[in-house]
Amino acid sequence: MTFDLDLTQEDEAFRAEVRGWLAEHLAGEFADVVGTGGPGREHEAIDRRREWERRLGAGGWIGLGWPVSEGGRALSLIRQVIFHEECARAGAPGRLGHMSEQLVGPTLLAFGTPDQRRRFLPGIVSGEVLWCQGYSEPGAGSDLAGVRARAVRRGDQYEITGQKVWTSLAHIADWCFAVVRTDPESTRHSGLSYLLVPMDQPGVKVRPITQLTGTAEFNEVFFDGAVTGVENLVGAEGDGWRVAMATLGFERGVATLGQQIGFERELDAVVEAARANGALSDPILRARVADAWIGLQVMRFTALRTLTSAGDGISGPEASISKLQWSNWHRDLGELAVDVAGQSALVAEGGPYELTDAQRLFLYTRADTIYGGTNEVQRNIIAERVLGLPR
């Protein structure tokens, strides 16, 4: 499968439709949330951004590529890309429903039972229900096979005990899709199961983790006898590794193209700052700016190639290449931003801990090479599963 970058008249008409809808709503009722949210700023305007999710749902802008029978619009890949790019260009607020629409939704489409799809997909498509991801643990970060959280079946329920960490937006999520160990005698990849767990129950405790940026979008989640029905098992018991890997493949979806438009805006701000303070006259900084622009173009074409090579919609191990590209590029952009700012980047903009955009970019992007699979893990995946090298 190839990706045609030449848009048809119908594609251009769709772009105009998206722009028109966004202009109408972002200039009106939701003008106050333009530019809010996103990595490092997820604490901003939570209630209003939940309203934005519901507005997207009412407008039919969630689940664009999903089958019509499941509440989607069955739009082509290029039109999904167009939507995410236009959202980024318009400064639409950072999505609270990313994990709902881009991760658990496609997983249920691929592995869920008809009853699970009927129960859970409408809440995602409407923007009413938010999800978080229960993968990483204190002793199993990027090494997901080391999961120790356990679920014991008792009648028609699973009882879950254990801890998850770095759980984005768990403090506002309604449900969690979690990988747990259902076979106590199992090790590594075997004996894991993929459960859908309600967050609003006595056996779930969420504790925010304060980051270098001073914000707390990541959390620790403690399960102490939390329960979920056996009907909320996705796939077969013990087959959680396969389902979890598919979810990670979906994570490298079309939204990454919209993410790159956000990167482009950040790069433009760095260039403008360099022009304003004269830093662009430094040949070394100027070369770094040029490298950043080139890297962004390479990243876009790599992402397009990766997406279109996934005929079943699940990106393979090649997606690790994209993860390495964008995480390293974004981290380097943060370093470039503070180097352009010069000595002023060493001083907070205000008290007690008010950061500039450059400072926030620099601090938050240190995490880019860790979450979603560390650089080391991504390189191992590429070496073993793409290049065929020995473990």
UniProtKB/TrEMBL annotation:
Residues 238-387 form the Acyl-CoA dehydrogenase/oxidase C-terminal domain. Residues 8-128 form the Acyl-CoA dehydrogenase/oxidase N-terminal domain. One of its GO terms (molecular function) is oxidoreductase activity, acting on the CH-CH group of donors. Pfam families: Acyl-CoA_dh_1, Acyl-CoA_dh_M, Acyl-CoA_dh_N. One of its GO terms (cellular component) is plasma membrane. Keywords: FAD, Flavoprotein, Oxidoreductase. Its cofactor is FAD. The keyword Oxidoreductase applies. InterPro entries: Acyl-CoA_Oxase/DH_mid-dom, Acyl-CoA_Oxase/DH_mid-dom_sf, AcylCo_DH-like_C, AcylCo_DH/oxidase_C, AcylCoA_DH/ox_N, AcylCoA_DH/ox_N_sf, AcylCoA_DH/oxidase_NM_dom_sf, Mycobact_Acyl-CoA_DH. Residues 132-224 form the Acyl-CoA oxidase/dehydrogenase middle domain. Belongs to the acyl-CoA dehydrogenase family. This is Acyl-CoA dehydrogenase. It comes from Lentzea albidocapillata.
